[in-house]
Specification:
The complex is a heterodimer of chains A (166) and B (252). With 166 residues, chain A is of the alpha/beta class. Chain A is 25% helix and 23% strand. Chain A is elongated, with a radius of gyration of 17 Å. Chain B has 252 residues and is mainly α. The N and C termini of chain B lie far apart (37 Å). Classes of the chains: A alpha/beta (166), B mainly alpha (252). Chain B: Keywords: Oxidoreductase.
């Protein structure tokens, strides 16, 4: 875990927790690990967020949502997008991983999991519907940049897999 | 540091992704299957995301206070675009689309792994971020080369034709402009001449595995990096720039 590079003042936590990812509403941006820094200086909260993917359209929305969440608490916020260090799926918290699974998105495993599935080597991605590991990769690119599309061979349900990014 | 060189250098990197992203975007809703359609547009989105980071940086170093990522992307004339000829080649069929992607992804990945070591912190950060995405692009395109090459006689023949046709655009990836040379000397730019052997090995290994022949032609096209583009470029720009030219300063 690379969480030590996160620098968030404790009193700002709960406000940031209330902002969710617009594409995966069950996941707060804190559990997603996109907030890298939040510091209040002279009544202005400076928030640094990092994109999951360079082209992720959710980042602009997340920035706006953070500003309005702070506005409700009578605080002004300024958002800065930082690229370095680059976001990794390791920054998703254990609670975030559970929320993903409950929502029907398989949580990221290793960088090789979807490749193994494609080549039929090892079956390690579990179906979020029935729990079977008899699953196969339908497409490395799914409904959003961060997901791959899988299908379960046991219950026949399609499901999303959150791609591992390291 | 000479900012003009840095500006040109950034555009030289980003224009490849911009034009390739535009080409892939043309396939939105027209892919041969739902999965490949979504994959193509996902790759396009990654490339545009990277382009935004590059152009925001280019706007900062341009010395022009009116420059923004949008003016750089949409308001230049054809001669000012510095992308290689490979990325502007048309989506003739899925074979061509995949081969173009494959030939570019291999270069892109090798390039970014060097750019990550740049003495310019912004370029290094963009590279580091992009590598993760481009690894997926490479995996996607090289897997499809294997499938099509080692697939049916029809798919083999057609993907072979695309490989043979597009091969003549590969050498240009390694050409160096004056801005490239200046940036290499400063430790900012990537010395692409050192990547050439790894590049041809990387693509030849996959082509061989895919039972495809490695073209032997030694005539290569060039010009894109100097702004001298193929006949396709004007059509791409017409499509891309229509809104911005018709309604200057428009906003959503």
């Amino acid at each position: 875990m690379t969480l030590e590079i996160q620098n968030i003042q404790p009193h700002l936590h709960s406000i940031l927790e209330s902002v969710s990812d617009p594409e995966i509403p069950v996941l707060s941006i804190m559990d997603m690990g996109v907030v890298r820094e939040a510091i209040e200086v002279d009544g202005m909260v400076h928030v640094k967020i990092t994109p999951t993917y360079s082209g992720c359209p959710a980042m602009d929305v997340i920035g706006d949502d953070i500003v309005s969440a702070f506005a409700k608490a009578n605080k002004k916020a300024k958002i800065t997008l930082v690229l370095s260090p680059a976001w990794t799926t390791d920054w998703i918290t254990p609670r975030g991983r559970k929320a993903l699974e409950d929502y029907g998105i398989a949580a990221p495993l290793s960088p090789e999991a979807d490749k193994e599935a494609l080549l039929g080597n090892k079956k390690i991605v579990k179906c979020t519907n029935c729990g079977s590991t008899e699953t196969h990769l339908v497409s490395q690119f799914g409904s959003t940049a961060c997901k791959a599309l899988f299908k379960c061979d046991t219950c026949q349900e399609p499901f999303d897999y959150f791609k591992c990014l390291k | 540091m000479n900012n003009k060189n840095l500006y040109d250098y950034i555009l030289g990197i980003a224009d490849n992704s911009l034009i390739l992203g535009q080409r892939l975007g043309e396939l939105c809703g027209h892919g041969p299957s739902l999965e490949t359609d979504i994959a193509g547009t996902n790759i396009s989105l990654d490339l545009f995301g990277q382009v935004r980071s590059y152009f925001q940086y280019a706007a900062q170093v341009s010395g022009d206070e009116n420059a923004t990522e949008d003016t750089i992307a949409f308001m230049r004339i054809e001669r000012a675009y510095k992308n290689v000829l490979l990325v502007e080649q048309p989506n003739t069929d899925f074979g061509y689309t995949i081969v173009r992607q494959f030939l570019f992804d291999a270069y892109h990945l090798l390039f970014l792994k060097e750019l990550e070591k740049s003495t310019d912190a912004t370029l290094a950060a963009i590279a580091k971020k992009s590598i993760k995405e481009v690894s997926y692009h490479w995996r996607f395109s090289s897997d499809w080369i294997r499938r099509l090459g080692d697939g049916t006689p029809e798919s083999h023949e057609r993907v072979q034709e695309a490989v043979t046709d597009l091969w003549m655009y590969t050498d240009e990836l390694f050409h160096q402009t004056d801005a490239d040379k200046a940036m290499i000397a400063e430790g900012v730019g990537v010395d692409t001449s050192k990547l050439k052997d790894s590049y041809y090995k990387m693509i030849s290994d996959v082509l061989t595995e895919a039972t495809l022949a490695i073209p032997e032609g030694n005539y290569f096209h060039k010009g894109g990096k100097q702004g001298i583009h193929s006949e396709h470029m004007g059509y791409i720009l017409a499509d891309m720039q229509y809104m911005q030219r018709t309604y200057p300063n428009m906003e959503w």
